[in-house]
Write a structure and sequence with these properties.
The protein is mainly alpha-helical. It has helices at residues 2-5, 10-18, 22-31, 37-43, 48-71, 75-94, 99-115, 119-140, 150-174, 181-186, 194-201, 215-222, 238-263, 266-269, 272-275, 279-311, 336-340, 345-351, 354-365, 374-389, 393-416, 420-427, 429-456, 459-468, 472-477, 480-494, and strands spanning 232-233, 236-237. One of its GO terms (molecular function) is lysophospholipid acyltransferase activity.
Length: 504
């Protein structure tokens, strides 16, 4: 510590950390009965854990401002700053239960030291982290939306599994093995120190709800490999402007979630009154409920992304065009335009929870290449994601729904897109608008149908809502392979529908 103090005075560091210990301050207020959180939670009609979570997410933004103003100029303190502030937020939300988030970090550090960064370490990390998470779910999970230590732990599980793979990939590179371009970007040739690992685990902007990012990104960020001061527009750094934009969008989506949630809710769908409405109304209601329910996640991701950009870890130089500004979307978890304009379920997958989907694609799906079957690899990947979310039946039903919908969509599109009438309809302005409206209704309605089990979790609840919808999704998507697909192919041949040629 004396080496560090030669660079920065005790008083400067002490004052900086005092203004950053927000969580400890709020915890002390709670211990002495002076915390405003219970009062505010009652006014906002929410729970104390949920309000603490929101406060903690919002804290990431000022922590980024303080980092750039006071800490960034001292390289020795950068990682330590995130260790302390992240642990402070974790302590405020979960108390002594933060030990559960520390144990896996210590585990991967010691297994990497003992067995080396290879295949065995990946297996140990995968099994240990998933087992720890599942046991945590069994101990804490209920029928409601729980905010316990398992919430940040599910994010941490993916980060540590990815870290073990990245360490293994780094060893492969050192041996001259060929890796994919994405694997090369995240591969680690050196093992992180314990303190670096703890900073990576408790990074305050992402610890609670994500997004996940690689240790390579964290290391590059600490090493100042991102051009914070080189891109300035109208006297402001570009990352500051982009962070503020995301912050405003996050607040707007949070407000929309509050309004939408007050109009569309699960309790009504579980009531007898819901059955008294028309079948079309029930489907539209369920779809709109799901759309606004997803705003809960979107608002959190936008707010955390704003913090990530403001801190500076979101740098992404996707386009090397001279003079073009950087994107700063390296920690983006939602693509708003694609999500809001979705006309097929693949658009939802491409735009929603992007970093988790990237993890699933890079570290699960592509690693299952040895199975020799894409559908089987996709099925195993979706099962992993369901298990990662919890043990309740609703998670598995939702991801099964995703599988059968995507399977049908891809096959249907591959068949119909080869016909001339398909292209003629999309080229006609009037027909294009009609098709867009139909597809938009389709995606909203069946996103609702698909998401219901995920939200209500238990079979008694999702079965009740599915009964009110007459299990419409299963009727539409399940028989595709053995009934609808052969019928579609036969119909195209029977009516002599013209196919487009390759030249066309």
């Amino acid at each position: 510590m004396t080496v560090y103090l030669s660079k920065i005075s005790k008083s400067t560091w002490g004052s900086t950390m005092r203004i950053n210990m927000f969580g400890l301050f709020l915890s002390i207020l709670s211990w002495v009965g002076l915390s405003p959180v219970p009062f505010l939670a009652n006014i906002l009609n929410t729970t104390e854990p949920a309000l603490r979570l929101l406060i903690s997410i919002l804290l990431g933004y000022p922590l980024g401002i303080i980092y750039h103003k006071y800490v960034r100029k001292y390289p020795e303190y950068r990682n330590l700053y995130f260790v302390i502030t992240g642990a402070d937020i974790a302590l405020y939300n979960f108390g002594k239960a933060i030990i559960h988030n520390t144990v896996p970090a210590l585990m991967i550090y010691f297994t990497t030291y003992m067995f080396g960064p290879g295949k065995l370490n990946v297996i140990i990390s995968f099994v240990f982290n998933m087992t720890y998470l599942i046991v945590g779910y069994i101990m804490t999970e209920s029928e409601n939306y729980d905010i316990t230590w398992t919430m940040p732990h599910c994010v941490l599980t993916l980060k540590l599994i990815a870290l073990s793979f990245d360490l293994w990939d780094g060893q492969k590179l050192l041996k001259g093995a060929e890796l994919s371009e994405n694997s090369k970007k995240t591969a680690l040739r050196e093992t992180p120190s314990l303190l670096e690992l703890i900073g990576f685990v408790y990074f305050p902007a992402c610890f609670l709800v994500g997004p996940i990012f690689s240790f390579k990104r964290y290391s590059d960020f600490l090493s100042e490999r991102f051009p914070f001061d080189k891109e300035i527009v109208n006297t402001k750094h570009i990352y500051e402007t982009k962070a503020m934009k995301r912050l405003i969008q996050g607040i707007a989506y949070l407000a929309a979630f509050q309004v939408g949630g007050s109009v569309f809710n699960v309790k009504y769908m579980l009531s007898d009154e819901f059955w008294e409405t028309s079948i079309f109304y029930r489907h539209f209601y369920c779809g709109l409920w799901a759309h606004f329910a997803l705003y809960k996640y979107i608002s959190c991701w936008l707010l955390t992304e704003a913090s990530c950009i403001r801190i500076g870890i979101s740098y992404n130089r996707a386009d090397e065009t001279p003079g073009k500004l950087s994107n700063w979307d390296g920690c983006s978890n939602i693509k708003l335009l694609c999500f809001e304009g979705a006309t097929k379920f693949q658009h939802y997958i491409d735009s929603f929870n992007c970093n988790t989907n990237h993890f699933a694609a890079e570290y699960i799906y592509k690693r299952l290449k040895f199975l020799g079957n894409r559908n089987l690899s996709q099925l195993f990947t979706l099962f992993f994601l369901a298990l990662w979310h919890g043990t309740r039946s609703g998670y598995y039903v939702t991801f099964f729904n995703e599988f059968i919908i995507i399977y049908m969509e891809k096959e249907f599109e591959s068949i119909i897109s080869k016909t001339a009438i398909y292209h003629e309809m999309w080229q006609n302005k009037f027909a294009r608008y009609i098709l867009y409206v139909i597809l938009k209704i389709y995606t909203i309605v069946f996103m609702g149908w698909s998401l219901v089990p995920f939200d209500v979790k238990v079979i008694s609840k999702w079965w009740s809502i599915y009964s009110s919808l007459y299990f419409s999704g299963f009727i539409i998507f399940l028989p595709w392979g053995f009934a609808y697909k052969p019928l579609l192919i036969w119909s195209l041949k029977f009516f002599n529908v013209i196919k487009v040629t390759k030249k066309e």
